[in-house]
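--- STAGE predict ---
source: upstream dedup step, 1 unique chain passed
mode: sequence only
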Amino acid sequence: MANRHQSAIKAARQTLKRQERNRSILRRVKTFMKKVDVALQEKNADSAKSSLRDATSELHKAATKGTLHRNTASRWISRLTTRVNAA
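--- STAGE serialize ---
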């Protein structure tokens, strides 16, 4: 423990905080994406469209906060939208 610098200890603390925050944001995003999938499986177009709107919002938030890369968020939104429009 003698060699551990204060900056390393603080960095480790910050990493844990970020990791926890990112994990909760990603879980939330995936939950909203799953709602779209369920609506599509039930062939419920209205529910799928409203779920898509919510999922899109959550994906944009995750990209804004840096949890997801913006291109990844855009790709996921595009794929979801394609599937909802095809239904």
